[in-house]
Amino acid sequence: MKILGILGSHLDTGVTAMTMNELMSHVQQPNTYEVVYLENYDFKPDIFGKQDPVLDKLEQKMLESDVWVIGAPTYWGNLAGQMKDFFDCMRQRLVRFDHTGGTHPDRFKDKHYLSFTNCYTGEFENFVTGVTDQTFRTIDKVMTAAGVIKIGEFVVPGTYGMKELPAKKKRICEKYGNKLNNVKKRDDSTMKRYIELFVMICVMALITMLIQLGLGLLPKTDFFTVYISFALIFFILLACILHFMTFVKHRRR
Ligand SMILES: Cc1cc2nc3c(=O)[nH]c(=O)nc-3n(C[C@H](O)[C@H](O)[C@H](O)COP(=O)(O)O)c2cc1C
Questions:
Q1: Structure pTM?
Q2: How far does the centroid of ligand 1 lie from the alpha carbon of residue 105, in Å?
Q3: Phi, psi (5° rounding) for residue 70?
Q4: Per residue in 194-229, pLDDT tens?
Q5: Which of 94, 178, 206, 209 has its CA 20 to 30 A from that of 142?
């Protein structure tokens, strides 16, 4: 597994860089990592007929890696400009366009990403006011368009005057660092899981309704019509809720 850290901050010695280094210190063999500090790459947007060679280099690194760690500070309540500029310049390469200009995942589909940000705002205030929410929303929007799967996100708040990462944040870096070591390639067993769920519902509904029948709580007529319709309706509703919670809702998170 190759892990690529993308550091989008003004300083390569600031809190974002410290967090990136702390995370990467937990990457274990045979996994490998590399961190690109965007300030060291003088990229420009591609122009028609001429691809930017610096973007070519960065794109190659992104293609060769399995997991991206995207780290950038929150500036003015949003993603810091360096990272945003990188995403803007990479747009043509991150997605495929259809004939109406709609975007679709392309070559980066099913890679994984972890995102983190930081801000002066303290933990409680950030929890209440969501200062860093828009930063993650912007990252998630780009990654979702590119079909890249999210591993997680975290914030280092209260960074004013911070010279070292607090122990609590180091533990979070350790947790996510371990996650980076164990990212599984996308398994496409979604259909299998829904079939298993359907079987479980059928079995449980049958047992429950037979008990109800035994207790005289269900009419004996049309038992199987009632049973089959119950199992089907229950499964469809549960599957819709699960789909919403796992795909639609998490697309933003
Ligand atoms: C231009 C700019 C805008 C900022 N805007 C915010 C902000 O809106 N909210 C906040 O809590 N902190 C804000 N900050 C503070 C940064 O988020 C904080 O300094 C961050 O931890 C810097 O990361 P670094 O040490 O990696 O550079 C801003 C800092 C700069 C330079």
A1: 0.78
A2: 31
A3: -105, 110
A4: 899 999 999 999 999 999 999 999 888 889 999 999
A5: 178
